[in-house]
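Saturday, quiet lab. Running sequence design on the structure tokens for the scaffold JK sent over.
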């Protein structure tokens, strides 16, 4: 995997790059949004769940922009149930979808149904989560997931001043679902920054839990993260030992960690990272309970995905900017990677409010 070392943007550049662009119920259940009318062809959009705020935003942005471009849109949410998502995609295929945009629940679970899509000449765009081990995947649209992790690791490094401070500092780590290929990129990027300090003894993981399989969080669940943090505090920090930083790959795990700290932790509050800038987490940032969150403006990702759909529908190649990084087991998938930035208490107003992503009232 090609590693990228990129400096932190100025706030104004962050906002500008986001706004310019990167450039929920099942059809078998209660989360269907149905179809919207258009004249440019039919696009099936499969989202994993409505349980996380970001997927609601992704789905809504995608539907709005595809409809504005003149396409019929079949948007479905699968309640984090793999069988439901497979059934929804089967229905999209049988109802005449010409392009499928899929944010998978489990990247290895869609091979059979996507083989049907390929047989019928339906193009597939993996959305934000890479679909693994299927040669039916035509393109991948996502944020630079490795960069997400490096920015989280760099934030911890810089806030603790690891290159100059004596230490040692105590660190604990939480990443996402082991079935989500992105989780490995997030964690890999962060560990490439932090592991040299762990190896040197400047960062100490008192729980001993460092490997991906040890720190993964099933379904990115807030409750699972909270339960694991409860156990870590009880075993390692109940005597008032300070936790200096908690690496959390996204906001749902960060929320679980925060909940656990509030209930069980008595020492000085640690640095906590996150991703997605969910409302509850931004409120925690404002209150000093979460240090930062990676901001991935779903409007820009939706816009780029619509460009890709439009190119496919017109018989041309979709825009991509990466043809080396993402191998899904059948070969490299041509990808478009949007650039993430981080929000914290110093810049959230410019990134989130001034850009129109949230209103001030939503964050009160």
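Result came back. Writing it out in full:
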């Amino acid at each position: 995997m090609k590693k990228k070392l990129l400096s932190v943007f100025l706030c104004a550049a962050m906002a500008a790059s986001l706004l310019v662009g990167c450039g929920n119920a099942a059809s078998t259940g209660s989360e269907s949004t149905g179809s919207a009318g258009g004249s440019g062809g039919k696009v099936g959009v499969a989202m994993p769940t409505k349980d996380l705020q970001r997927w609601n935003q992704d789905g809504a942005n995608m539907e709005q922009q595809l409809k504005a471009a003149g396409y019929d849109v079949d948007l479905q949410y699968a309640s984090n149930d793999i069988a439901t998502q497979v059934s929804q995609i089967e229905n999209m295929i049988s109802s005449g979808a010409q392009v499928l945009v899929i944010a998978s629940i489990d990247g290895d679970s869609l091979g059979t149904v996507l083989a049907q899509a390929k047989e019928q000449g339906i193009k597939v765009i993996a959305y934000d989560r890479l679909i693994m081990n299927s040669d039916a995947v035509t393109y991948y649209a996502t944020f630079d997931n490795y960069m997400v992790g490096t920015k989280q690791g760099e934030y911890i490094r810089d806030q603790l001043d690891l290159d100059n401070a004596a230490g040692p500092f105590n660190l604990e780590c939480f990443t996402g679902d082991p079935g989500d290929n992105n989780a490995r990129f997030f964690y890999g990027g962060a560990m490439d920054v932090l592991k040299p300090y762990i190896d040197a003894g400047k960062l100490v993981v008192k729980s001993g839990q460092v490997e991906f399989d040890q720190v993964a969080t099933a379904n990115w669940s807030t409750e699972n993260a909270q339960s694991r943090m409860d156990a870590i505090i009880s075993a390692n920090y109940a005597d008032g030992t300070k936790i200096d930083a908690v690496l959390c790959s996204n906001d749902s795990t960060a929320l679980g960690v925060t909940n656990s700290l509030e209930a069980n932790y008595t020492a000085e509050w640690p640095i906590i990272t996150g991703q997605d800038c969910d409302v509850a987490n931004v409120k925690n940032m404002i209150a000093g309970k979460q240090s930062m969150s990676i901001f991935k403006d779903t409007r820009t990702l939706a816009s780029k995905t619509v460009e890709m759909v439009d190119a496919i529908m017109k018989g041309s190649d979709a825009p991509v900017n990466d043809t080396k990084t993402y191998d899904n087991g059948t070969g490299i998938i041509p990808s478009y990677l949007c650039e993430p930035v981080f929000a914290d208490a110093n810049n959230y107003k410019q990134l989130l409010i001034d850009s129109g992503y949230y209103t001030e009232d939503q964050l009160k």
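Notes for JK: The mean pLDDT is 89. The chain has two domains: 23-143+298-338, 145-295. Ask whether to fix the surface positions before the next round.
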